[in-house]
Amino acid sequence: MKTIQIPYYTSTMDLHVDEENLKAVIYSGTDEYKTGKTEAELVEEALLNPIGTPRLRDLAKGKNRIVLITSDHTRAVPSKLTLPILLREIREGNPEADITILIATGLHRRTTEEEQRRMFGDAIVDHEKIVVNEAFKQEDYDFVCGLPSGAELWVNKAATHCDLLISEGFIEPHFFAGFSGGRKSVLPGICNAATVNENHSYKAIASPYSTTGVLKHNPIHEDMVFAARSVKLAFILNVALNSEKKVIAAFAGDMEEAHEKGVEFVRSLAQCPGITGDIVVTSNGGYPLDQNLYQSPKAVATAEACCREGGVIIMCCSCVDGMGGTHFEKLIVKGTVDEIDDYLSKIPPKESISEQWCAQIYSRILKKHKVILVTTYLDHDLVRKANMIPASSPDEALAMAYEMMGRDAKVVVIPDGVSVLAVKEE
Questions:
Q1: 308-339 per-residue burial string, b: 16 or more CB within 10 A, e: under 16
Q2: What is the pLDDT of residues 370-418, one digit of tens each?
Q3: pLDDT single digits (tens) 246-274
Q4: Which helix (H) or strand (E) holds 241?
Q5: Active site residues
Q6: Three-state SS across 256-270?
Q7: Which residue in 36, 231, 254, 349 is deepest, having the highest Cβ count within 10 Å?
């Protein structure tokens, strides 16, 4: 019997699998990567040696209004470490700079002050100017231009009215943008709802290039890069993290060049063959990404690459914050999987509904696989309405899966499905 710890909220849950059933346990290589340097040293070195740009302190000279985009409460960006270093670097070049920290929420709810203190530390919350992006407050946005897809680009006025726009973030595989980080700080991060919705339209999500690990020809990525360039995102600091959310590498400089280097590094550690199983067990890596069901397709899409058609996916996701969005909740319980997908497929790009993309991706996966959701917070009746099967522990879920697939079913475990880039077996 093998015991495997599955990340769940702020801790883990134990999964027990008989050795004869266990086909593979897949981890990202990020946990094995050793730097020999502290997290702060990695960040400092990246800022000292930016890729494709002058140092940030030099860019800051003569700039009156500087906006620093950071991530919200759903992301594990180590801002308590990185923000003080970035702020110091800016002020070394321009002690009098008027700096605004802009929290990139995309379509997520507002980040609370309590969450800001946990993410940034008391000193930054108490002494820095912080603005939270609110995608549904149209008066907060300026029209910038059209995007390659035909969508309109509307961006938070804090960014369009500044002299220098920079961002921080982290890079990991992303289930339809290819990878997170870089340009994503702008779109969806600080755009209005209409821009985000159209970028995430049914047509865009349905593209074969809109998938994990793919940037070339990815229409969602192409719009994002165009958007970031259009508002002159001048400098980024992006980090790579291990499963303990510790910095193992940092990349700073030009929005595309530094991001490409970071993507290359993350891909070298995260990419692996998608070993096929009858049952695949995964998670969203615990807190903060497993706060709600809306975020959970990230890992389920990784499991999809490793699950044979007709197989069972077990997703461990606390959903401590509920479904994660009113539109997503209404769509995911709207009917059968086929009915949901049929409804979404008829929505024109410019009429896209906020959060529909996660319902679309779940529908795609649920057409081929049963999904058992392990949650101790989300109401189990609501899980059933979402066309999934509820369970309260990984072992309970595995027992259910064996009943569906047979007691000799082969099990693949991906403890953190967000950190792994699984290449589907042909």
A1: beebbbbbbbbbbbbbbbebbbebbbbeebee
A2: 999 999 999 999 999 999 999 999 999 999 999 999 999 999 999 999 9
A3: 999 999 999 999 999 999 999 999 998 88
A4: strand 233-241
A5: 108, 174
A6: CHHHHHHHHHHHHHH
A7: 231
The enclosing H or E element of 411 equals strand 411-414
CA angle 33, 34, 37 (to 5 degrees): 140
3-state secondary structure of 374: strand
Cα dihedral angle (381, 322, 243, 85), rounded to 10 degrees? Answer: 180
Sheet of strand 233-241: strand arrangement: 129-132, 98-104, 65-71, 164-170, 233-241, 247-253
Amino acid at position 366, single letter: L
| Domains of the chain, each with CATH number or no CATH | 2-26+275-424 (3.90.226.30), 39-269 (3.40.50.11440)
The secondary structure of 279-310 as a DSSP string is EEEEE--STTTTSSGGGTHHHHHHHHTTEEEE
User: How big is the CA angle at 368 (ends 274 and 394), to the nearest 5 degrees?
Assistant: 70
For residue 127, give every residue at least 6 positions away whose Cβ sits within 8 Å of its Cβ, in sequence order, or none.
Answer: none
Taking a C-beta distance cutoff of 8 angstroms, is the pair 12, 5 a contact? yes
Q: Which residues neighbour 379 within 8 Å (Cβ) at sequence distance 6 or greater?
A: none
Q: Strand 173-174 to strand 98-104: parallel, antiparallel, or no bridges (unpaired)?
A: unpaired
End-to-end CA distance of the chain: 30
Please tell me the least confidently modeled range out of 48-52, 79-83, 293-297.
Answer: 293-297
